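Students often ask why we bother encoding 3D structure as a string. The short answer is that it lets us treat folding as translation between two languages. Here is a chain of 131 residues written in the first language.
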Amino acid sequence: MRVVLAKLGLDGHDRGLKVVARTLRDAGLEVIYLGLRQTTDSIVAACEQEDADVIGLSMHNAGHLTLAPRMVQAAADAGLDVPVVIGGIVPADDIPLLLDAGVAAVLGPGASATEVVTAVRLAARQPSGTR
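And here it is in the second language, the structure alphabet:
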């Protein structure tokens, strides 16, 4: 399973995403780490080039309600059936809005390694149209 991990937008906090990258690698997943300040276009291109199964985004800049749905739409516009999983600082009231916008899973601060790996694996197995 291949996972593209990125920080979408101008958020400059990537320590947590690096921990997630190591966690997923330790669980046997292949991680394509794009790092900071990515665009939807750069993430889509990486997904196409790497034949990714999941997109993982870290959100800490309060842009999740704009950026995550934009990423879901960009993947769909490119004809990719790749679920988007986000983690980071997301208020509980925003989670249903993100799920309704097509985000496959939302992980908050303190999510365990097991929860992260399970969420990514489950997202990859969701049939198209159920995200």
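Translate back mentally: The radius of gyration is 13 Å. Keep this in mind for the problem set.
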